[in-house]
Request: fold
Amino acid sequence: MLPSVTQCDHMTSKNTNQPTSKNNRQMAEIIACRDNLYQYVRLAWPIVEPATPYIDNWHIGLICEYLQAVTDLQIHNLIINIPPRHMKSLLVSVFWPTWSWIKSPHLRWLTGSYAQPIAIRDTNKSRRILLSPWYRTNFGHIFTLSPDQNTKNRYENDKTGYRLAFSFNTAVTGEGADILVVDDPLKAQDADSPVMRSQVNEIYDTTLTTRANNPRLTRRVIIMQRLHQDDLTGHLLAKLHPGDIPSYEYLCLPTEYEPQRYISSLGFNDPRTQPGQLLWPARFGEKENTAARLDLGPRAYAGQHAQRPAPAGGSIYQTAWWQGRNRITPTPRQVIARWLSWDTAFKDSEQNDTSALTVCELLEDYRIYLRFASWQRLQFPQLASAITNEALRWMQDGKLRGIIIEDKASGISLLQTLQQSATYEIASMLKSFTPGQTSKATRARQASLWCERGCILLPNPSSEVPWLYDFEDQLYKFPSAHINDPVDSLTQAILFLEHLIANGWQSRTAAYA
Reply:
C-alpha cells in the first residue's frame, strides 16, 4: 500500500531563498510521478481542481495501485464499486489516461458513461491537463496532440494514441480500443427499468467487448455504484467466475466497513478495523453519511454506499426483522440442540447450483439461531465427504441431533450412500425431508412467518462471522439472488423444526397474554 500523504503542498516552499533545493525537489517529484500514478494525481490535482484543496486518503492510493496494474497488464479486466463523491471519475476517467500516455502514448482509449455530456466532461478535464504548461513542460517531449484531431469528444497524439468519448444512450463508435473505460453506465433514475438495464448490459456484451484492438492486450475497467442487482456489475459477476476468460478483478469499497468482505489478488486488506468505519471520513464524515441515508432512503443507500443492491426492505425475507433486534451471540449453555441442513446439488460446474449448509441451533426458549452457513460447488463424492466431515465437526459437544437432507434429486442418492457408508453414529442422524409439491418461494413464505415473529435469530455482524454479509445479501434478494441455495437450506431447517418453533412461540405468547 502506498504511504499516506498530506494535502497537496508541493507547489510551495517554506524557504524561497533556496531555488536550487526547490527545483531539485520538484524535479524529483516529476521523476517519481512518471512511474507512480498516486504521486501524479497529487501533482496534477491543481490543474483540474484549482479552487479545491486536495484531501488525501488511503483509498486513492489503492485505486491508483489497481489502475497501474491495468496499465502494466497485470490486470486485464477490473470492476470497481465505490460510493458517490469519492473521486471515482477523477481518478479513472481524468488522471489515469493522461498518466498512462506518459508511459505508453500509443494507447487508444474509449471512455464512456450513461450520457455523452458526462463522458465529454471528463475527456475535457483530461485535455486540460494535457494542454497545461505543467504537463507540456515536463512531458511534452514524449508526444504532442495532433492539431487536426483535437475536439471535445476525440483527440489524438502523434504516437497514434487517441481518446474517444462515447455514451450508452447513443450509437457506440466502431473504433477499437487498447483500454476501455466504463464510468457509470446506468443513470440512477433508470435503475429500476428492465429495458434500460438490459440495454446497457447488451451494449456491453455485444458491442463494447468486440472493440478490442488486440484481445490479448486490451484492458477493461468498469467503475460505478451498485444501483440494482442486475446492473452491469451484477450482470458480469453473475456469469463470470474465477477461471473464466476473461475474468474480472473485483474491488469493492463500501462507505461503511464490513469485515472480511472482499478478497484481492493484489493482497489488499482494508485498513479499517471496526464495522461501520467510514471510507473517507476527512471528506465524507458522519454528518454527510447521515444526510445521504436520509436523502437516498434505505434501498438506494444500500446500493450506492454499501454496494449491496436489494429490493426495498427485502423480498420474501424482510430486512426490518433483523434491524436492531433478533440478533444474538448465544453462550454454549443456551444451546440445547443442533441440526445441520443441507441443500445439495449433483454437479460442480458453474452452471449448477451450489451445495449449501446451514447450522441451526435450538435455544432454551425454542427459538432457532443460525450458527453458520457455507456454500460451494462439489462433486458427488466430495459432497458425501463434506457432509460426514461437517457432522464430525458439529457433534463434538454432543448437541447434534440431526442431518437434514431433502429427499429429492441428489438428496435421494446421498441419503442412500450415507446410510450405507457412514458410521452408525452419523447414519442414525440422517433426517429425510420431503417438501411436497410447492415451489421454493412458497416454502420460503411459509418459513418467513417465523422470522417475522422473531423466532429465527441471526448473529451480530463481526469479523467472527465473515459469511454473514453474503448470506444476508442472498436472504433479502431471495428468490431473485444469483445464489439461492443457502436460503433454501435455512428454509428447509425452519420447516423441519417448525413444530418446535411453534411450541416455543405459543408458550411465549401465552405467558404475555
User: Anything to note?
Assistant: The chain has two domains: 73-304, 319-512. Residues 349 and 365 are 41 Å apart (CA to CA).
